[in-house]
Amino acid sequence: MSNLTSSQYGLALHTTSFQLGLSISNFSGETRFKTWDVDHELSTYLHQHLVEFISHKVWDKLAFIAVAKGPGSFTSTRIGVVTARTLAQQLNIPLFGISTLEAFAWQNKDNYSVNSLIPVQMSASRGQLYVAIYEVKNQNQKFILTLPDMVIYPDIWKQKIQDLKINKNPLVTPKKLGVTVASIFELAYYDWQQGKRPHWSDVIPFYGMSVVN
Question: What domains appear along the chain, each with residue ranges and CATH number?
Answer without folding.
Answer: 9-99+176-212 (3.30.420.40), 101-172 (3.30.420.200)
